[in-house]
Amino acid sequence: MKFKRFVKEQMFSEREAKDYLCWVLVDRAADYYTLILREDRHIPLRQMMKRMEQRFTSRHLRETALIRFQNAKQRIEESIEDWAERLTNTIKHYTLSRKTQKQVSGSGTSNK
Question: Which residues belong to any copy of the Paraneoplastic antigen Ma-like C-terminal domain (predicted)?
C-alpha cells in the first residue's frame, strides 16, 4: 500500500516503479521478485504487486486454512450452499498459498 502511494506521488513510469521496487525488497521478497521476473520479464507492475501481496499477506492463511477446513462445521443459520462456498474459499486460500510456497522453494531459495 505504501509503495503504491509512493509510486503515484512520484509519478514513476512502470519501468521506474519496478526498478525501485527491486531496490527496496530484501530477503524472501527479493527472491520472490526475481522468480516472478524469471517467469515473465515483461509482467505489468500491477500484476507483480498482486502476486507479491498474495504471497506475503496471506502467510497466516496457509496454516489456519487447513485447520479451519479440518474443523469446519455447518453453522445453524447457514445454508448448504453458503457452507459449501465457505469451504471452497478455504481450500482455494490453502492451495494458492501452497502452490506459491512450492514455486519459491523450488527456485533455489530456502523457505524457512
Answer: 6-93
- Per-residue pLDDT of the chain (112 residues), as tens digits, is 688 888 889 999 999 998 888 888 888 888 889 999 999 989 999 999 888 888 777 555 566 666 777 777 888 888 898 888 888 877 776 665 555 555 544 544 444 4
Distance CA 111, CA 57 (A): 16
| Distance set, CA 67 to CA 53, 54, 61, 70, 89 (Å) | 22, 20, 10, 5, 14
- Assign 3-class secondary structure to the chain: CHHHHHHHHHCCCHHHHHHHHHHHCCHHHHHHHHHHHHHCCCCCHHHHHHHHHHHHHCHHHHHHHHHHHHCCCCCCCCCHHHHHHHHHHHHHHHHHHHHHHHHHHCCCCCCC
Cell numbers for 27, please give them.
Answer: 530477503
Cα gap 95→18, rounded to integer Å: 28
